[in-house]
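[Q] Does anyone have a clean structure-token version of this?
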Amino acid sequence: MFTEQDLLTLSNKPKITDVSLQLYADFYENHLCNKIFEYELENKTHQKVNLQFGKGDMCHLLGIHHIFKGVKNKKEYAGESGFQKIKNGTVTFDFLKQKNNPIFKSKQNRILYFPFIHQVLMSSTVLLFRNDGLTKIDADLMFYNQQNGIFFHLGIVKDNTGNFYSPITFYDRNNNNHIANQEVIPVTSKSVIDTSSFSSRPQNTVF
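[A] Here you go.
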């Protein structure tokens, strides 16, 4: 079984027997939540991006909402409730297979590639996203990188206050047709602010 540290340096899709959703939840909580990923961009509309991940975002980023589509109590497996069900071992790979195996199989790559979000945050190209009708995604910005022929996409949107951004989707593709001919925004600086404890001075790490 892989460790959280292993997930930080993946170069290929892990085998389903080497990971678990609980491991992914711990990884997400420790390496993505309680942090602000700060980017300075050369764009008038999006000059400063303060990106935050919430526990309630994880299930949607995994894509497991597709597995529970049409299920009467589907809200139990979304948001923070869904996150807690992953943390306590209620929602596992086997559980998802039992709920809807055909959909699980169609989303399995997306789920297994989930830890690559961190690598996209550390090293990516940022695009001013324009939906050309190839997808239903309505993102303000798209972060992407490519590894071993796989394109990883992280779509984010600005919140209503205009001060922070939130993730709305993460997925993989074996082609770049969702991002071809999109406007690239130069990134002038990047840093991570640890907000896990405001009782002490937040730690700012430039990367």
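[Q] Thanks! Anything notable?
[A] The beta strands are 35-41, 48-51, 125-128, 141-147, 150-158, 165-173, 183-185, 187-194, 203-206.
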